[in-house]
Amino acid sequence: RTMGLDQAVALCMDHCHYAELSGDDAWFKTVILTGGSACLPGLAERLEKELRGLLPSSISNGIRVIPPPYGADTAWFGAKLVGNLSTFPGAWCATKKQFRRKSRFNIMW
């Protein structure tokens, strides 16, 4: 009963195109896949093909779907980059003790 990935992305691109948020529409025509499911063989190519079929040529020209560069470990590499920033410690971080204390009351395991 819900729309597929291709339909959801096409709808988002369509809204961005008609909102005319900027003169350059290349920013919403690049789709970057992440996570383990994004590593399914042929997903990037299939999604790109489906988007070209769903959208008019004025929107679909220039669409690029990029698979995860590091496979399922892409999220880990991103976290590693953020974790190595000098500005990372502080408000971003919670100690293990703080996390467990919050988790115990907010999340039902």
What would you note in describing this structure?
The structure is a single chain. The protein is elongated and about 50 Å long. The protein has a two-stranded parallel ribbon with strand order 1-2. It has helices spanning 5-19, 43-54, 57-60, 74-83, 96-106; strands at 30-32, 64-66. It has 2 domains: 1-68, no CATH class; 74-108, no CATH class. It has 5 helices and 2 strands; from the N terminus they run αβααβαα. The mean pLDDT is 79. Helix 1 crosses helix 2 (43-54). With 109 residues, the chain is mainly alpha-helical.
Question: What keyword list fits this structure?
Answer:
109 residues, mainly alpha, 48% helix, elongated
Indicate how many domains the architecture comprises. Answer: 2
Q: Fraction of residues in helices? A: 40-55%
Alpha carbon gyration radius: 19 Å
Main sheet? Answer: 2 strands, parallel
Strand order in the largest sheet = 1-2
- Mean pLDDT comes to 79
Q: Give the ordered list of helices and strands.
A: HEHHEHH
| Structural class based on helices, strands and sheet pairing | mainly alpha
Protein name: Actin-related protein 8
Organism: Citrus sinensis
